[in-house]
Amino acid sequence: QSSLKAIARPQQQSGQTSIRQIYEHIERLRKGNNRVKMIWVPSRDDDLSMSREAKRQAKKATRAGCTPQSLPYQARSTRLRLAVSQLHQQRKLPNNVGNYSKRIDRALPGKHTQALYDICKRREAGVLSQLRTGMARINSYLNKIGAAESDMCECGCGPETMEHFLFRCTRWEAEREAMRRVRQNMMGNLSFFLGGKSASDGAKWRPNLEAVRATVKFAMATGRLSQEGV
């Protein structure tokens, strides 16, 4: 019953990632001219074949030595925290993490970074930090630290790199509109949208704070990244 109530009022509930996935699956079914109706059935009602099948699958999933075919979001999140914690204890990070930051921002280290974070609230700052360091909850990074089995994006169009997530993934076209409104002709330029200096920028370069703000809002709207950092 509580699950149905959460789905009916998604904005007021926790577990937003799971709820969003449910809505995405429902939308796919509707596009095929299917109707979706969700009902609650008491667990003790064995007259329904679905109830019997649900119990059978539950028993199967809890057998000794049984592992899920795919980890639920909460399990992946726990695995990620453990992996990052272990890396910190070892005082080392995956190879090329620092290279990513230098590639998108040739002005590092620089005073401009303070201006970038000054425009952010606490949770926004956590998201911006992930975007600028590459240490984000996207599959390319998760795969590097052993928290995901593959670096492929769920859209199926390629690895979920930062460029793919911000500019190409077909799942986030609507959320990406604010970034397009800032500078359509700069879409695809990581440095511009993350407040970094590129090789083509001159001596008078300054970060475009409006672009940075739009990028952070996009990332938060997708729900793909942790707003607390990794």
From TrEMBL:
Organism superkingdom: Eukaryota
Region of interest (Disordered), residue spans: 50-69
Name of this chain's protein: Reverse transcriptase
